[in-house]
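Re: weekly structure request thread

Next one in the queue (217 aa):
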Amino acid sequence: MPTFTLVHLEYLSWAALWTIGLSVIAFIGGGILGFGVAMARIAPSRVLRTAAMVYIQLVQGTPLLILLFLIYFGVAILGFNQVPAILAASLGLTIYASGFLAEIWRGCIQSVPKTQWEAAECLALTRWQRMTRVILPQAIRIATPPTVGFMVQIVKNTSLASVVGFIELAQAGKIINTSIYEPFTIFVIVAIFYFLICFPLSTWSRSLERKLNVSGR
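Done, posted below.
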């Protein structure tokens, strides 16, 4: 009966790297898209605000699993070539992350005291100058802890990418288990890998929150 070996551990290690890579892609892509949506949420145009709100509600109201299915299988139904698993997973997680990051950042931008907005207007700054020189520098300090905390959720949600054929950490554990059937050993090791990835992010988030609260006071 085959047992868990260093070869299996190496396979899980590579899968963990793919998990980290997918998380980074989702965070960067989701951050860029989410920032645009967040700015649209506070735009003077009512049309932009409504469109951004609808987008956020759709993304947050759609389970990530369904979103991945729609991207991976929906494209083929429309008559196009089926997208590669890594592209479908990256796109699905990017859209998912953008919906939540947009709302996090919108709340942080609007939490900047109203007096700061009014002071920037009194200086006759343009809207772009007000945002870049006065509002966003303060909002970044508020947004940093919850943003880092959300990164942990992205890492854990990469486990759903297996539904489109992407082999990340959880899927690699399933594949090994089907060959040697040692579920307890395998998934304890998988859990340790997730812990080693997520715990530093959680610790960093709490540290930033304490540090920024102190500096804010």
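The chain has a mean pLDDT of 89. The chain has eight helices and no strands.
Next request, please.
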